[in-house]
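Why does this matter for the project? Reviewers at the last site visit asked to see concrete outputs rather than summary tables. In response, this paragraph embeds two records directly. Each consists of the residue sequence and, immediately after it, the corresponding structure tokens. Nothing has been edited or filtered.
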Amino acid sequence: MKLLSVTVPCYNSQEYMRHCIETLLPGGEEIEILIVDDGSKDNTAAIADEYQERYPAIVRAIHQENAGHGGAVMKGLENATGLYFKVVDSDDWVDPQVLKDLLKLLRRFKQTNQLVDMVVSDFVYDKVGARHKKVMRYPRAIPKDRVLHWEDVGNFPKGHYLLMHSVIYRTQVLRDCGLDLPLHTFYVDNLFVYVPMTRVKTLYYVDRVFYHYFIGREDQSVQEAVMIRRINQQLKVNWLMFQQVDLDQVENQRLRRYLLNYLEIVTTVSCVLLYRSGTPEHLEMERRFWQDMERDYPRHYALLSRRMFGRVLGAQNAAAQRFTLAVYRLSQKIFGFN
């Protein structure tokens, strides 16, 4: 069994996938790099096959008809043989030395039969043209370098949530939770982090930057204009988060509070994007979003509508929109996203 399976979803990634893969290869034969060619039209498939031929003990090339980011992640999970599982998008990359140190940690877990459910590390928003790259660190919330339970975890500052870039899951946790990401849908990374979290009993935090999250291509899915065009996919993921996790069934109070905070920020992003568009159609979608939530998920509505952003977003007036957009713009400056 490999220590770590790394799935690299690739769609028309010929221009940048080599850099991603080269930063993973120093992990050696303790990892497997699953390059999932998601129906690419360019030279992606050939590059994947090339790496498999050059590094047969490390790299596996998997080809499938286009199924979207979620479909590629699920294909990787289906084929994974590693004890732990990580997703690295093909335009991102990792720090090779931190990768080696994380593998030492995973090896220790295996040797001592103390298999933590989730390993957390830092990541950086590697934004094109930004003079200062924002690093997402968690020391205020998570004690570092020891095995933890949720009772040991403190409060996360606003904006410092665990994203796909910051987590390595034990593979069996992903399988036991029934993770099933929708096909042909962007923004499923929220589901990838959120749903399995309900099965996490133990975690370990390494306070080092492992993941470089690239932002800057005009066609990138996280660009604001692109997100607005794909707002239906963002809303779909938001609804699936309501559907797939019953917060009242999460027994640990601190974990439940964290999941609610995470759900609040994803819901806020959905509504802010509708505000940013400003079209009558999108403003009506925002109004219906809250109405439908109250009808179909009354418990989620009750929890979210009582919180600050819920009260503001639910106010449905111009002042609320101005306040929300001001907070959003400030967050963009601080964290460097979009």
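We now turn to the second protein, recorded in exactly the same manner.
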Amino acid sequence: MSEIARTRREWLLSERPASRLQARLGRAYVTWRRFSSNRLAMVGLSIIVALLVVAALADVLAPQSATIGDLKNARLLPPSSAHIFGTDDLGRDILSRIIYGSRLTLYVVALVAIIAAPVGLLVGTVAGYAGGWIDAILMRITDIFLAFPKLILALAFVAALGPGIENAVLAIAITSWPPYARIARAETLTVRNSDYIKAVQLMGASPFRIVLRHIMPLCISSLIVRVTLDMAGIILTAAGLGFVGLGAQPPLPEWGAMIASGRRFILDQWWVAAAPGGAILIVSLGFNLLGDGLRDALDPRSGGQ
């Protein structure tokens, strides 16, 4: 290790940081060291990074069009050098459809996380800090959503809203926030009566400011871990909606809809359904491994640096 690298490391790991920036960078460095020491977590991170790259460069990486096929000459062709994953019943290249489908997958995952996580965080922290009848009402509403299987509830919402990728995202988000609210409430109950919060109250901070500025940040790490672990479930739910025709509509290359179209040929032309199924499996595995690694890295009870 060079002298510069050693000095930088000592600066990051200083027990007495000279500024907030140094303290934050030090915590981030320790968290990265814990995360990077987990090989499976790094595998998961590599899968997700690869997914992001594929989605960003889909126009470059896709060998053919994802929506236009050669029905006359390329229908249901097996995997070959010309079509690595074969073609579907409309003569479209399956590899190209999977590559473009990664954009839809990230679109669904990102929007669901952006909608559901803040809603769950707000409901959980308000319920945990306020207590009393506010807590009772918010948690009973949460229990109502938790009483139904996520996929069944999402199917009901999409059936009411109508098929389509936007309605599927909204339905999945509506069914995804209750676990986040439970986690945020539990975290809030552990710190609500702490000396730190009491000191902020004595300084005259309003309940809104306490919840927003002092309690919510303490819940972020647990929420990030849970959201990452739920990504696989979100992908599977979106694929399930696409499979029954309530998600992304043709000709969009959504992986669940691709499996649905390939089930008619599963015995003879197995690659039509196997390729998108494999994509769902790999991406779901990547998010699960990443979530496990983040849980270990962000766990405050983890020992050592």
